[in-house]
Amino acid sequence: MLQLYGQEFTSRMLLGTAQYSSPDILRQAVEASGAEIVTVSLRRESARARTGQAFWGLIEELGCRVLPNTAGCHTAKEAMATAQMARELFGTSWVKLEVIANADTLQPDLFGLVEAATVLSAEGFDVLPYTTEDLSAAERLLAAGCSVLMPWASPIGSARGLINKTALQSMRAYFPDTPLIIDAGIGSPSHAAEAMELGYDAVLLNTAVAKADDPVKMARAFAQAIEAGRLAFEAGLVEPRDMASPSTPVAGTPFFKIDHAS
Amino acid sequence: MQILLNGERFATDASNLDELCATLGFTDAKVATAVNGSFVASAKRSVTPLAEADEVEIVAPRQGG
């Protein structure tokens, strides 16, 4: 079971709710994914359109735990105010904390992130920080009060997968007991499976499902890949080798001559 | 007076944030508010006065990744 801030979850897939072609496709994709946690945001509400009111009705129907984000915030102050608004709006102390450093890469501003995480944790938030694989920032975030870390695989929406796999392996090894969720950059189910095989606890994604030709089918594909990756991690993967090693027993091979073995 | 509502100039006679929300039809809506960059809880809107050039944010749930 996945455990995050005292809550248990069967699914290890967290799904974003943005960019779907229709509310109905979003609903079907969430159901197909089996996700128990969906990310949401907050945006300026128009008195005429009242877009947010209808969206909230849909989210309530899904019955999932919501994880509000602070997407688009470029300073700790903006992120903190957004988190506070989200806590009241969604009735949850959980927040996917994003402080963005750069509009082209959407890379986390690790300094602002630690600053905001420190304040929000002290205010009783359960902070799930969108971070990088940087171990020193990770330690600062844990010291700030975070119990979960969410490193990127690659830039948000890039679909590049695990571009720094070695560092992500180090992070997993360095924090064996901290729930680690890969957040951002996942493009295909194989990327998600790869993250899970490394021992990551869960995967959070949005674009790869929402922008697929068939988001509902893709949601199912990701769910199966994430489950497969987790099973593989639990089963224990064999170590890679540089040279071949016969899987069929050598002993008793017909016509075997000793010089074949060298 | 003129305020900045959700990033746009807006003329209002509302003396506090709660009145502004009511004017906009948000009394029972699922919205959250901030004034000049700081969160204002719904219970505090009626005691949060508005002044010329205040920057007011009124937000609602939206799709997110």
From TrEMBL, chain A:
Compartments (UniProt record): Cytoplasm
Catalytic activity entry: [ThiS sulfur-carrier protein]-C-terminal-Gly-aminoethanethioate + 2-iminoacetate + 1-deoxy-D-xylulose 5-phosphate = [ThiS sulfur-carrier protein]-C-terminal Gly-Gly + 2-[(2R,5Z)-2-carboxy-4-methylthiazol-5(2H)-ylidene]ethyl phosphate + 2 H2O + H(+)
GO cellular component, one term: cytoplasm
Residues at which 1-deoxy-D-xylulose 5-phosphate binds: 157, 184-185, 206-207
UniProt keyword annotation of Cytoplasm present: yes
SUPFAM superfamilies (UniProt xref): ThiG-like
Active-site residues, as the UniProt record annotates them: 96 (schiff-base intermediate with dxp)
Biological process (GO), any one: thiamine diphosphate biosynthetic process
UniProt KW keywords: Cytoplasm, Schiff base, Thiamine biosynthesis, Transferase
MF annotations from Gene Ontology: thiazole synthase activity
UniProt domain Thiazole synthase ThiG: residue ranges: 4-249
Pathway it works in: Cofactor biosynthesis; thiamine diphosphate biosynthesis
The keyword Cytoplasm appears for this protein: yes
EC number(s) on file: 2.8.1.10
Coiled-coil parts of chain: none
HAMAP family, alphabetized: ThiG (MF_00443)
Record family assignment: Belongs to the ThiG family.
Assembly mode: Homotetramer. Forms heterodimers with either ThiH or ThiS.
Stated role: Catalyzes the rearrangement of 1-deoxy-D-xylulose 5-phosphate (DXP) to produce the thiazole phosphate moiety of thiamine. Sulfur is provided by the thiocarboxylate moiety of the carrier protein ThiS. In vitro, sulfur can be provided by H(2)S.
Protein name, as recorded: Thiazole synthase
Natural source organism: Methyloceanibacter superfactus
TrEMBL record, chain B:
Signal peptide: none
InterPro entries according to UniProt: Beta-grasp_dom_sf (IPR012675), Mopterin_synth/thiamin_S_b (IPR016155), Thi_S (IPR010035), ThiS/MoaD-like (IPR003749)
Protein name: Thiamine biosynthesis protein ThiS
Species of the source: Methyloceanibacter superfactus
